[in-house]
Structures are given as structure tokens and as C-alpha cells.
């Protein structure tokens, strides 16, 4: 390893996180799309995560401002993409995410469903699926928007049931509606619209839309890798492979197209940054943040050692490796938080970051409580510390 490589210290990595992820108050974003672009994509498996991740990064506005971005001007869209997971990305970035990642997922989803249909033995095939999809889209055109249940009620084909794993221990009968709707969404022919209930609900209505404009896959992967490196670098090839879910070959080709520079880290290891991005990052002002479960600042790397003490993992992660709500101080995870049934936001520090940190966290918790208002947040993935705090 060359000792002449530029050095980026752990402190500088945390400076980058605070500034580039728009978490320090002085660099918060003016729009939801810009906040999302700052971290490339927002985890959206849990409906509340999108809202709470944006709350921490926006200069102002309540849940209605996020709803406007998602359902009004549609500057932010949810897509099944990296790691076959639901994310929210800016409409500007969506064609690149679609071509680099979502197209492959959609093709795999279609192959899987067609195999299930063929194995079921009822004569359901690609032509039947095409007719079912067309009927669903025609119904959406007539209704404007509809939930999955409303679509199933209006489209007889979506009430079809099939048997998966016939004759095996895991044999089960299931309806096709959810799978057909998921496939239409993966293909970009429908998108999630306003949910039934509040902004914390995942019972979305669906609306007919047009697929994204085509971008060559290699170009799209390179653009996504470049944006990711800017937001998360210094980072490794393994980090990018984990974050995207791409094959190692695709990761290496994308990085080669970007032409990243290598830097040395405090621990003696090496990592990658965007070309020309080796200079020191100015320290932001001291900042605290209360981020939701699965927030991208906690989930952007396979190796999170520079901002997370390994001793804190058992309290903050569930059994499947999903991180819960976290408390941050100057680029480091220092605790966790939760909302109790009466609406109170409670938190606990896993160590002693000092009085200034405690005061800043308390102020941020008050800001979060005011922003959430009457809504109640229960993470989809419950972690030991979150459960303790609400008990």
C-alpha cells in the first residue's frame, strides 16, 4: 500500500456525512428531491421512514410538504430497486435507477410469476398475465386511483388463486393480485399514490403511469455509482456491491467508468472517492439528529465502523440486520429513540458524549415531536432498544 495516498480520517468522514447528507442545520435542503438526492435514495419499506428521513434534512415544512413531493408534483417517487428493496428517489434520478437496477428486478419478478402460473397447472400463461395486467390498467384509468383491494374487486382476473409448491411441504394457495400489482409497479406502469389513512400508512392507492425513459444500463450504473461515491465515499467496492445488490462484474464496470481515486483511512485500509474528491471536508457546526429505522445514513455501507461502535449493534439492530431509530451526534451513532403511545419522543444515549450532546439531542427530540404531531410511529422492524424505550 502506498504511503503517498491522500488520507481521509474518521473525523473527516463524519464531517462529510454531516454536510453531504444534509444533517447539519446549516446545510439542510430546501426541497424533498434535493434532500433525497443528497443520500441518493431513501429507504421506503416503512412508509414513515421517507417522511422522517426528510424531516431531518429539510429546512422546514411538515408532513404535507413531503406528501406534495410524493403525490402532488411527484418530484419524489417510490421504486422497487436496490437489493430488491423499496426506495424513494428523485424523479430526475429515477430513470437511472430504473435502467441500472429496477429493470433487472422486474424481469426476474416476471419470470418467477410465470413459473408459478405454469406450475399451477390451470393453463395460466404469459397471454393470461398480459390480459390481467391490461385489465388492471384499464380499471385504474377508469377509477383514477385504487387500492389493491379495490382493483381485485373490479378485475376478476386478479381474484384468481394459484397453488405454489404443489405437493411439497410448503404448498400454499395464494391470490395473484399482489403479485400482478407488484409486477406492474416494478415495470414502472403504475406507481404508489396517496395511502388510505395518514402518512404513516402503507396501504397505498395505485395510479397508472408511463414507464421511465430508457437509459443505457451501463451509463445508468455509472451515474448511480458516481452519485453514491460522492455521498458515501470514502467507501469500498464491497460497500457499493452491498448497497446496490449488483453483481461484482457490474460494480467493477461502473466504478471503472467513474474512475475513482484511492485514499488511505485511519485504520490503514484503503477506500475510494470520486475523482478530485480527496481534499479535506470542512467541519460543520455541532449537530444532533434523530433518524428513523433504515435511514440511509446508517444503511449506506456494508462496513459502518467509522460511525457505529460495534458494541452498540445488539441494541440498535433487529435479528435480520435492520437498524432501528438512531440518535446521532456529529456524525456518530450515540443512541436510539422511540415514540411512546402518548406521543412522547424518548431517547437513550449508549455512552457519555457530553453535556452539549445531551442538550442538542433533547432539542432535536422536541423538534421531532412537534413535527410528528398527532401521528404515532411504530417502526416496521422493532429493535431491542426501541422496544425497551416504549415499554
TrEMBL record:
Keywords: DNA-binding
A single MF term (Gene Ontology): DNA binding
Keyword DNA-binding: yes
Record-linked Pfam families: AlkZ-like
InterPro entries in alphabetical order: AlkZ-like
Name assigned to this protein: Winged helix DNA-binding domain-containing protein
Lineage: Bacteria, Bacillati, Actinomycetota, Actinomycetes, Kitasatosporales
Amino acid at each position: 500500500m502506498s504511503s503517498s495516498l491522500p488520507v481521509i480520517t474518521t473525523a473527516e468522514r463524519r464531517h462529510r456525512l454531516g454536510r453531504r447528507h444534509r444533517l447539519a442545520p446549516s446545510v439542510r435542503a430546501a426541497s424533498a428531491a434535493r434532500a433525497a438526492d443528497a443520500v441518493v435514495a431513501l429507504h421506503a419499506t416503512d412508509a414513515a421512514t421517507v417522511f422522517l428521513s426528510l424531516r431531518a434534512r429539510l429546512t422546514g415544512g411538515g408532513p404535507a410538504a413531503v406528501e406534495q413531493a410524493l403525490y402532488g408534483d411527484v418530484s419524489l417517487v417510490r421504486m422497487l430497486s436496490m437489493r430488491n428493496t423499496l426506495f424513494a428517489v428523485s424523479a430526475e434520478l429515477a430513470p437511472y435507477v430504473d435502467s441500472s437496477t429496477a429493470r433487472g428486478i422486474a424481469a426476474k419478478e416476471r419470470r418467477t410469476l410465470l413459473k408459478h402460473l405454469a406450475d399451477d397447472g390451470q393453463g395460466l400463461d404469459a397471454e393470461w398475465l398480459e390480459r390481467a395486467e391490461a385489465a388492471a390498467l384499464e380499471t385504474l384509468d377508469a377509477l383514477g386511483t385504487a387500492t389493491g383491494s379495490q382493483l381485485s374487486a373490479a378485475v376478476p382476473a386478479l381474484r384468481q388463486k394459484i397453488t405454489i409448491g404443489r405437493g411439497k411441504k410448503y404448498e400454499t394457495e395464494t391470490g395473484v393480485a399482489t403479485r400482478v400489482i407488484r409486477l406492474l409497479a416494478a415495470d414502472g406502469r403504475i406507481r404508489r399514490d396517496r395511502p388510505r389513512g395518514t402518512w404513516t400508512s402503507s396501504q397505498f392507492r395505485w395510479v397508472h403511469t408511463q414507464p421511465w425513459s430508457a437509459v443505457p444500463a451501463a451509463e445508468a450504473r455509472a451515474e448511480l455509482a458516481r452519485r453514491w461515491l460522492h455521498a458515501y465515499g470514502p467507501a469500498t467496492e464491497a460497500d457499493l456491491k452491498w448497497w446496490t445488490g449488483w453483481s461484482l462484474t457490474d460494480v467493477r464496470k461502473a466504478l471503472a467508468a467513474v474512475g475513482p481515486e484511492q485514499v488511505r483511512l485511519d485504520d490503514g485500509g484503503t477506500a475510494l472517492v470520486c475523482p478530485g474528491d480527496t481534499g479535506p471536508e470542512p467541519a460543520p457546526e455541532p449537530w444532533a439528529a434523530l433518524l428513523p429505522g433504515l435511514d440511509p445514513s446508517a444503511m449506506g455501507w456494508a462496513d459502518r465502523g467509522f460511525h457505529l461502535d460495534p458494541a452498540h449493534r445488539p441494541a440498535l439492530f433487529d435479528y435480520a440486520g435492520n437498524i432501528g431509530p438512531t440518535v446521532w451526534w456529529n456524525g456518530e451513532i450515540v443512541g436510539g429513540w422511540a415514540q411512546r403511545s402518548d406521543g412522547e419522543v424518548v431517547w437513550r444515549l449508549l455512552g457519555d458524549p457530553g453535556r452539549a450532546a445531551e442538550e442538542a439531542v433533547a432539542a432535536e427530540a422536541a423538534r421531532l415531536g412537534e413535527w410528528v404531531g398527532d401521528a404515532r410511529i411504530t417502526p416496521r422492524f422493532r429493535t431491542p432498544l426501541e422496544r425497551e424505550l416504549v415499554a
